[in-house]
Write a structure and sequence with these properties.
8 helices, 2 strands, two-stranded antiparallel ribbon, mainly alpha
Length: about 160
């Protein structure tokens, strides 16, 4: 929802507030049954308070490391189980930092795909560091990760 434009937010607000929508060419149309709408948000921008008041919230936590590793293996079948586990663990540790954009499951998958494209089949901290841009999308976040100590975040040793 937070990626929709202001016009769509106004349209949705009218729908939720009044159970109707106004279409310039057709006029106002009232719903026979009050609509139930499911919105998703990545919190990239704040929604209008009037819209938020009309919503119930359900927060979905990140999946645990085992589930992330499983998802990585399904989406990047060539990724070894130990590599997927290392990626999932590293992403979890990165989420503990004060980042502008915390990495999600999509970034974990992208990291596995980047490593696969480079022919990396076992964990290598040096390669992981050089491909960290697959996970952290802002230079400021890369700086935060480097300042926190990449060896600890990425984990040393073979996968």
């Amino acid at each position: 929802m937070d990626r929709a434009d202001d016009e769509f937010e106004a349209f949705l607000f009218e729908l939720l507030a009044e159970g109707s929508v106004t279409i310039p060419e057709l006029g106002t149309r009232k719903a026979a049954v009050r609509p139930v709408t499911i919105l998703t948000s990545n919190r990239t921008r704040d929604l209008h308070d009037a819209l938020k008041r009309r919503c119930l919230y359900h927060w979905i936590a990140y999946p645990d490391e085992d589930r992330v590793a499983e998802i990585i293996r399904r989406r990047v079948p060539s990724a070894s189980a130990p590599l997927a586990v290392r990626i999932a663990a590293s992403v979890r540790r990165l989420r503990g930092l004060d980042l502008y954009k915390v990495p999600g499951v999509a970034e974990a998958i992208a990291w596995a795909a980047a490593l696969q494209a480079l022919g990396v089949s076992t964990w290598d901290t040096g390669v992981a560091e050089r491909t960290l841009g697959a996970v952290l999308k802002y230079d400021e976040d890369l700086t935060v990760a480097r300042d926190a100590g990449l060896s600890a975040l990425l984990g040393d040793g073979p996968a």
